[in-house]
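BUG: 3D viewer hangs when loading the predicted structure for this chain

Environment: internal workstation, default settings.
Expected: structure renders.
Actual: progress bar stalls at 90%.

Input used:
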Amino acid sequence: MAQRSCLAVLEGQKPDFRVLEYLVDMLFQLNCEDMEGLTPLIRVLDAGNFELALKMVRLGAHLNYVNSKSGQTILSHFVLQGRKDVVEWLLRCKALKSETDPHIEDMSGRDACDYAALANFTYFHELNHCYDPSKRTKHPKAMPTSSFSPLAKRLNKA
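Structure tokens produced before the viewer hung:
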């Protein structure tokens, strides 16, 4: 049921973020993909709602989520979109316990640093001069999804 709720909230041109925020507060699978392969975190960041995005990350949304079709990470997605504001937020999210990794390769073998170089996206030193192959993470086979659990149980893990 929560999976269907996720998809219903995210489908359409203008998702209702108040409903999404309610679902995050109650019971929600934070790392599901909609029909376009986008997660709730990507939708919220795309809308520039950094407050809700921070809340979602604290509750278990993966900053390094890998798209099941392309293998791209959230960071790669926004580098390709040219979204300086979102990329900065993702890179500065290090204040949280989880950290955005720019070196996770997608299915084509490229990472966020490669896409930044191709797009001349040179705003952040974390994405420049990333040629050390030992830092790269090969494309993971599958991403774990968050479990269906009450908010109180999730907060104990955060």
